Amino acid sequence: MPILIIYAIEIYEFGVLMKASFKPRARLLKLLGDQLIGTPQLAVFELVKNSYDADADRVEITILNPEDVSTASVEITDIGGEGMSLDTIVNIWLEPGADHKQTKRNQGKRTAKHNRLPLGEKGVGRFAVHKLGQIIELTTKNKNNPEIFLKIDWAILDSCKYIEDAEIVVEEREMPQVFTNGSTGTRIVIKELNSSLTRGDVRNLYRNIQSIKSPFEFEAYRLDKSASTFDVSLSVPGHDDWTIDLFDLKAIIEQSLFRFSFLFSEDKWSWDYQFAPNEQLKKQFKVEGRKASETDSYLELPKGKVDLEKNFHAIYQTDRTDFLKDLGPILGEVYVFDFDAALGEQNAIKRWLSENQGIRVYRDGIRVYNYGEPNDDWLEMDSRRVNRLGKGINRRIAVGAISLELEHCPNLIEKTNREGFIENETFSKLKAVVNSALGKLESLRQIDKDRLRQVTKKSTSISFLGIDNPVDELKQIAIANGWEEQLAPAIRRTEKRYNEMQDIMLTSGMAGLNMTLAFHEIQHGISDAKKNLLAGKDISIVIEQFDRFELLLDTYANLLKQEKAREWELASILQSNVDLADVRFTLHDIIYSCPVLTGEHPNFIIKAQRNLIISAVNNLIDNSIYWLDKRWGGELSKKYIHIGVSEEFDKGPAIVIADNGSGWRDISKGEMIKPFRTTKSGGMGIGLYYTDTVMQMLGGELVLLDQGEIDGVPEQADGAIVALVFNGGTPCKK
Questions:
Q1: Residue ranges of the Histidine kinase/HSP90-like ATPase domain (predicted)?
Q2: What kind and span of H or E run contains 29?
Q3: What angle is formed at CA 95 by the lines to CA 93 and CA 96, rounded to 5 degrees?
Q4: Rounded CA separation 676/672 (Å)
Q5: Please, are residues 371 and 399 in contact by the beta-carbon 8 Å criterion?
Q6: Nearest Cα to 391, choosing from 320, 353, 346, 444?
Q7: What is the C-alpha to C-alpha distance for residues 268 and 493, in angstroms, rounded to an integer?
Q8: Is residue 731 a contact partner of residue 603, using CB atoms and an 8 Å limit?
C-alpha cells in the first residue's frame, strides 16, 4: 500500500513530489446562499447592503405577482450606484470570498459620491439570492463601460460537480436596455421563487426594509451622516393595501412616555432624559413633564465581571482611553412606553412593539442584524426587568438604537450567517457601556414612575405583574405569525392559570422578594415557550409544553396556598418533577436518569408539603439546564442530569440532583446560597436561596457537593451536585 504524507498542499508518494489543491464543489454556492443566510428578509437585506457599498442614492424593491410562484419575481434596483464593469464581474463578483471591500475598509478608502466605507467584508452576501429563488438576472452599468447582463440558473449550477465546471454567460451591451441616458447602477431580478409570498411575508419584509436605515435622528448627537443620503423603498403593484396601514416608527415613538439619548465618546458621556406625558395624562391627573441632562461626565460601569474573563469596571477606571480604542463613539436612543399608566387605545402600539421591540444596532447608519428582532435579547433586558424587581426596562415596552462609526470599531465583526457580531471582547465592552446607560435611564424613569403611581393611584404590585404579563406576549406572537387558531385554546388555559396565580399572590399580600421568587419560576416556563415559538419549533411540541406549563402554574398556585404537611413517597414527588421537565429535557436535548423510578435507588416516605419539594427540585433542574447549555451549547447527546435518592446523610434521606454542566463557578458554595449571588449572565441569584429556604422550613438542609463526596452519582455527572436532605424518613416496603 502506498504511503501518502500530506503537508499543506504538497503530497509525497514514494519520494515523488506532486501538487494538490482544494476543488470546491458547485454545491458550495448553494450552501453559501440558501443554507448560510437564515431568512428571505435577511437575503434581501444583504443585496441592499451591496447597493449601499456601491454608493447608490437609493434602492427600489418591487415584488410582482407575489401569490403566484410560477410568475412571481423580486426586483432590486439601485439608483445612482457605481455599477460594475466586465472586469469587476469576472474577477470580483463571481469570486466567492473576494476581499476587495475588506481591503478598502482597512485602507480607509471611501466612496466618491457619498463618502461611505464599505459594510461588506466576507464576499458571500451576494449569494443570498439563492434563499429567494432559482433564477437570477443581473444587469449592471458602470460609467464609461458597456451595460453587462448575466443570468444564473441555480438548478444548472447544482448539476455541475465543481465550481469551475459551472459556466456563466456574461453579455456586454453596447446599447444599454435598463440603465439608459447615462445612468448607472445594478438591477437584480429573482425569478422562480422558492415559495409564494403571502401578505404576512410582504409585511414582514417591509418592516425589515424600513429598519435598514436608522430612523433615529437626535441632531444634538448625530454621528456619521453617510446613510442620510441612502433610501430604500418597496412596492407591490396591485397590492398597495398590504403595507399602507403599517405604522411609522417616528409616529410611534412620539407616544413614548420616557425618552433617553446618550453619547459615549472620548472617555466621557453626555445624556438627555425626558418624561413626556400625553395631553390626557396632563389634563386628567395634572402630570407635568420633566427634563434632565448631563454633559461630559464619566460613565459608571458596573462593578464586578461583565463576563467570566474581564472586569471592565477596573479596566475602564485604570485607562479610559485604552478601553475606548476599539469602540469609538457610541450614540444611543431609547424610547420607553408604559401601558400601565398610559390612557387611551394602546393595542396598536403593543402590536407594533411585538414586532419591533428592543434595541437595534446601526453602523454608519445601516442596520446590523439581528439585534432588535423579536427573538433577540442581546442586552438581556428581559432578565434585567425581573432582576430589578420590576424597576428594570424590558424589550416589550422599549424600542431604541445604538449607532456606531464603522472606522472606529474594526473589531466588531459580523458573523458569516449575518446574525449579529462575533461575541469577542469588544462586543462585551459594547454591552457593558449600553447596559450602564440603561441603568441610568432606569433610575431616572423610576422617579417619574413613582410620581405617576401617586397621582393615578396605581399599585406597585399590580404594576409589577401587569406590565410584564408574559402570557400576553405569547398571544401577540401567535397572532403575528398566524398561529392563533392552533395555540388559542392552550394560551387561554395558561392565561387563566396565570391570572389565578396573580390573584392569589395579591390577595395573600405577597411582595418584595417573595413575589420575585414566585415570578422567577413562572418566567422560566413562559420564556422557554416563547423561544420555541420564535425558533419555529413544531407547534405540537409547543402545545405539549403549554400542557406542562399549566401543571407548573397549578403547582405554584397551590404552593402559595396553605398546605398541610402529609406523608409522601419521594418517587411520587420526583415523578411529578420529571413530568414537568420532560418537554424541556427534549427541547434542550438532555439525557436524564431517575433511578428511584426504576427501583434502582431506595424509596422513602417523608412528611412535608409536597408542592414545596416539587418547587425546590424544579429550581435545581432549571439551574442544571442553564449550565448544561452553557457548557455544551448545541452538541447532541452531551447533556446529562441525574435525579437520585441517597441514604448516606445522618439527618435523613436526600434527593440528589447532579449534572455534567459547568460545575461550581467563582463564588464559594457558602456564598452561592445567599440571595442575589450568581454567576449566571442576567441571573437573579435567588434559585438556591429559595431552595435553601424551603428545606429550612421543612427542617432539612441544602447541601452543595463536589464529585466523589457522595456515592450513587454516575461518573459522567462531573458538574454541580446538590442534595436536599430531609429531617427523617421511612424506607418504603418493596
A1: 608-730
A2: helix 27-30
A3: 105
A4: 9
A5: no
A6: 444
A7: 51
A8: yes
Question: Could you give the residue ranges of the DSSP H alpha helices within 459-599?
Answer: 460-467, 470-480, 484-507, 512-534, 539-560, 570-587
Q: For residue 260, which of 275, 270, 272 has the smallest C-alpha distance? A: 272
Per DSSP, the chain holds a count of helices (H) and strands (E) of 22, 25
The residue type at 113: K
SS3 of 58, please? strand
Range 563-734 has CATH code 3.30.565.10: yes
What is residue 403's three-state secondary structure?
Answer: strand
The CA distances from residue 724 to 11, 560, 570, in Å, are 61, 21, 11
Q: Do domains 27-242 and 563-734 have the same CATH topology?
A: yes
Q: If DSSP states are collapsed to H, E and C, what string results for 594-642? A: CHHHHCCCCCEEEEECHHHHHHHHHHHHHHHHHHHHHHHCCCCCCEEEE
pLDDT band at 1 (very low <50, low <70, confident <90, very high): very low
Which of 581-608 are b and which e, b meaning 16 or more Cβ less than 10 Å from the residue's Cβ? bebbbebbebebbbbbbeeebbbbbbeb
CA–CA distance from 622 to each of 87, 452, 543, 619, 715 (Å)? 58, 36, 20, 5, 21
Q: How far apart are the first and last CA of the chain?
A: 63
Cell output for 581:
421537565
pTM: 0.59
- Which ranges in 267-424 belong to alpha helices (H)? 279-285, 312-318, 320-324, 347-356, 381-387
Cell numbers for 449, please give them.
Answer: 414612575
Mean pLDDT of 1-15: 43
Which of 349, 498, 328, 467 lies closest to 403, judged by CA? 328
Please say whether the dihedral angle defined by the alpha carbons of residues 723, 726, 731 and 734, taken in this order, is positive or negative: negative
Average pLDDT over the chain, rounded to whole?
Answer: 76
CA distance 555 to 521: 11
* Sequence spans of domains, the chain: 27-242, 249-457, 469-562, 563-734
What is the rounded distance in angstroms from the CA atom of residue 203 to the CA atom of residue 16? 63
Q: Of 144, 148, 132, 228, give the one whose Cα is nearest residue 187.
A: 148
Contacts of 423 (CB under 8 A, 6+ apart): none
Q: What is the pLDDT of residue 657?
A: 93
Question: What does each C-alpha distance from 318 to 265, 267, 312, 478, 619 come to in angstroms?
Answer: 17, 12, 10, 49, 39
Percent of all residues in the chain with a pLDDT value above 90, rounded to a whole number: 15
What is the rounded CA–CA span in Å between residue 466 and residue 464?
6
- Residue count of the chain: 734
Cβ contact 510:383 at 8 Å: no
Alpha-carbon gap, residue 473 to 597, rounded angstroms: 37
pLDDT, residue 62, reads 92
The answer to whether the beta carbons of residues 426 and 361 sit under 8 Å apart is no
Say which residues have a Cβ less than 8 Å from residue 385's Cβ, sequence separation at least 6: 392, 393, 394, 468
Q: Per the CATH hierarchy, to which homologous superfamily does domain 27-242 belong? A: Histidine kinase-like ATPase, C-terminal domain (3.30.565.10)
